[in-house]
Design goal:
Elements (H helix, E strand, L loop, with lengths): L2 H25 L9 E10 L8 E11 L6 E3 L6 E4 L3 E6 L2 E5 L5 E2 L5 E2 L5 E2 L16 E3 L4 E4 L2 E5 L2 E4 L6 E3 L3 E3 L4 E3 L4 E4 L1 E3 L5 H36 L2
Antiparallel strand pairs: 1-2, 3-18, 4-17, 5-6, 5-9, 5-13, 7-8, 10-11, 11-12, 13-16, 14-15
Helix pairs in contact: 1-2
Length: 238
């Protein structure tokens, strides 16, 4: 394959990855706590034979998670919690501790506060949070302090990844990190609210059209280049 072919194929591969990321963003535009995903393109420049121009290839395979604040929606739910500012809730899953901004929790049969799919919410010490079955009222202060009928229960922890670049998204709203997490106190927890997805559907669809257009142009160029090479081979074979 010649240089032009490599250049077009690397570009098309990156655009395909970006289309997948945009489609996933649009699909999760109404998912509580979802954070927009983008793609980072890098350019590789390689020297060719002396006297020839250099070869430039764009590679798009690094994913980026937006940390923009999502809109907050009031629900009035006792265990609906939203983070205003940076930070994540820490939950316990079979794959290990995970970070999430999806703050719609509910007590399970044992009274432990869990996500909708059953994963336990952890406090600022890494322990599960237990809600007494006879509690008449539960309140959560902005610093995460949770109390039942005026008596303190626990303090909900907020955390940040030690290495923000190590975040690995799974199942849409859960993030795992190999570098560990550290406590964070620079944000407020709001009771009776949930954070919506930080995806703007109009912006994403506009971007999708732009990327599709760029992909189509790349395909046409590739087809034209293929026809040119076939023509050269046919001429030389006569």
């Amino acid at each position: 394959m010649d240089s032009a072919g490599y250049t077009v194929l690397t570009r098309l591969s990156g655009l395909k990855n970006e289309l997948q990321a945009i489609a996933n963003n649009v699909a999760n535009a109404s998912t509580t706590g979802f954070r927009k995903e983008g793609l980072i393109f890098s350019e590789y420049i390689s020297a060719l034979e002396p006297g020839e121009p250099s070869l430039s290839m764009a590679n798009g395979d690094v994913r980026h998670t937006s940390d923009a604040q999502g809109p907050l929606t009031p629900t009035g739910g006792t265990f609906d919690l939203a983070i205003e500012g940076d930070g994540f809730f820490l939950i316990e899953t079979p794959q290990g501790e995970a970070l999430t901004r999806a703050g719609a929790f509910t007590p399970n049969d044992q009274g432990e506060l869990t996500t909708h799919d059953g994963y336990r919410l952890l406090d600022n010490g890494g322990a599960a949070i237990f809600i007494p079955p006879d509690a008449k009222s539960v309140a959560v202060a902005a610093d995460g302090t949770m109390s039942a009928d005026g008596l303190p229960l626990a303090q909900i922890g907020l955390y940040l990844p030690t290495d923000p670049n190590s975040l690995n998204r799974q199942d849409g709203v859960r993030f795992y990190t190999e570098g560990g997490v550290e406590p964070y106190e620079g944000a407020a927890i709001l009771q009776g609210y949930v954070e919506n997805s930080n995806v703007n559907p109009i912006t994403e669809i506009t971007r999708m059209i732009e990327v599709q257009h760029a992909y189509t142009m790349g395909q046409k160029f590739s087809e034209q280049e293929d026809e040119r090479i076939r023509g050269v081979i046919s001429t030389l074979g006569r």
